[in-house]
Amino acid sequence: MLELKNISFEVEEEGQSKVILKDINLKVGDGKFVVITGPNGSGKSTLAKIIAGIEQPSSGSILLDGRDITPLGVTDRAKAGIGYAFQNPVRFKGIKVKDLIRIAVGSDISVAEACKFLSEVGLCARNYIDREVNASLSGGELKRIEIATVLARGSKISVFDEPEAGIDLWSFGNLIEVFERMRAAGADNSILVISHQERILNIADEIVVLAGGEIKAHGAREDILPTLLGTDSAVSACGKMTGGAQ
Amino acid sequence: MDEIQKKLLFEVADLHVVPEGAYNIRANGRSVGRNSTANIDISPKPDGNGLNIRVKDGTKKQSLHIPVVLSKSGLKETVYNDFYIGDDCDIVVIAGCGIDNCGVQDSEHDGIHRFFVGKNSKIKYVEKHYGSGDGSGKRILNPVTEVSLNEGSFMEMETVQIKGVDSTVRETKAVLAAHSKLLVRERLMTHGSQSAVSVYDVELNGEGSDADVISRSVARDNSFQKFDAKIAGNAPCAGHSECDAIIMDNARISAIPRLDANNVDAALIHEAAIGKIAGEQITKLMTLGLTEKEAEEQIINGFLS
């Protein structure tokens, strides 16, 4: 279980202290699919980065299965069982898709094993496994490869920061299927998705609403989703494809 | 050959044993093994300063190894090798030079390779440079490659210098006739206070000639690199040069493109990008469990692969 205790995050802006996150308390139970939603600028992506260790909170602590992982850096968090998918996946000249998947798995797995993760995200493995993760890949392809690397890690908790950002409508449809499959696969591993897409909210066990850096609501999908429909926190696929707080 | 020379030979030519086919192995200034074949003749120049290599017309699927190793500190040599490749050939030439310098005196090998490539021939030229040894004497390599491509011929040139060479000035000159093509892939990494200069001078003289010069390099520590590429289009032709470099620490890199279009149908392009490793690349690999240092190495290895 992932537990955030009294997490706050402040930055200095023009000599003034600005509060991005304020006293966040959140538990993500084993095997849960939790979606954090909220308007742009509400601090969602910052919260994802704090969980991954990319940003350190100004105060508060992060516990994974009861262990305090707050002092750990990105590498040690990854080793402890935190997976993180970037909102804007990174490109690498010269590094191939299979290299990235092997790094993610942490061992020199066969090409056939690496291909399995690509198939899971709906990519025809033999067309992609030897491709470089460079500018020749489209946004949608990159996004799926990014998700494949997170799947390959098999982390206790995988955090996806706005998986729908920057991809086309067709790719988005496929992406939803990927999440639905992950959701159906179940097991003890948890999934935390930052999104305001209605279709992703629709498959959540729990929804967390973040606004102004604070949790405004947290509960079962059945209870929360009806209150969000028609707001910025739950948009339909056509409504806001490229949205995404930084 | 002693063990050090054998190790150098492996680094520059992937050779454990005497190669098959035609070869000349030069160690500490003299030939220690030579073999000509029915189609590839290797003979010393009359003045003893190099080799004349003649490849018969129609020679296909044959290889030629001409590695050089230096393990004696203070040795300086200049070697002239001329390659006369006939028409309709398809061969691989593996050159390369390894220097081990444990002494205080500088060791230097300057190899001047001239290629005269016949019509419709295809040649792959691989050249690796490697330096080792912990002496204070420098390891210096200054290769000159001059290429003359006849009509319809193709040359692919792959040069690699990843470790241990203190100072390099690489000069490559090429003259291309109609419908010939030159493809250059340079990979380079410099450390410490090393210096590496690559100068290209390509003349696209024939209609439909095509040159593609691509350099990928990493400069670390206090090293210096210069990529100086000139492509002249003197006919309807296509030319492209690209310098893609990662800069680290206190290194310095200069990229000096020059394109001379002397014909209205000369299509010439230059691309250059120099930058440090993007922080988010390192972060991404760290989220996959690598340490910062491992991530950096992975990015560099991929970039230079």
Structural topology:
The complex is a heterodimer of chains A (246) and B (305).
Chain A: E1 2-13, E2 16-28, E3 33-37, H1 44-52, E4 59-64, E5 67-68, H2 74-80, E6 82-85, H3 97-105, H4 111-120, H5 125-128, H6 139-153, E7 157-161, H7 169-185, E8 190-194, H8 198-201, E9 206-211, E10 214-220, H9 221-228
Parallel strand pairs in A: 3-8, 3-9, 6-7, 7-8
Antiparallel strand pairs in A: 1-2, 1-4, 4-5, 9-10
Helix pairs in contact in A: 3-6, 4-6
Chain B: H1 3-13, E1 22-27, E2 30-35, E3 40-44, E4 50-55, E5 60-65, E6 68-70, E7 76-85, E8 90-100, E9 107-117, E10 122-132, E11 139-141, E12 144-149, E13 154-163, E14 167-176, E15 181-190, E16 195-204, E17 209-219, E18 224-233, E19 237-247, E20 252-261, E21 266-275, H2 279-287, H3 292-304
Parallel strand pairs in B: 1-5, 1-6, 4-7, 5-8, 6-8, 7-9, 8-10, 9-11, 9-12, 10-13, 11-14, 12-14, 13-15, 14-16, 15-17, 16-18, 17-19, 18-20, 19-21
Antiparallel strand pairs in B: 1-2, 3-4
Helix pairs in contact in B: 2-3
3D shape of chain B: globular
Poorly predicted runs of chain A are 240-246
Determine the N-to-C terminus distance of chain A.
26 Å
**Helical segment count of chain B:** 3
Compute the CA-based radius of gyration of chain B: 20 Å
The number of distinct β-strands of chain A equals 10
List keywords for this structure.
heterodimer; A: 246 residues; 4-stranded antiparallel β-sheet; 9 helices; globular; disordered C terminus; B: 11-stranded mixed β-sheet; 10-stranded mixed β-sheet
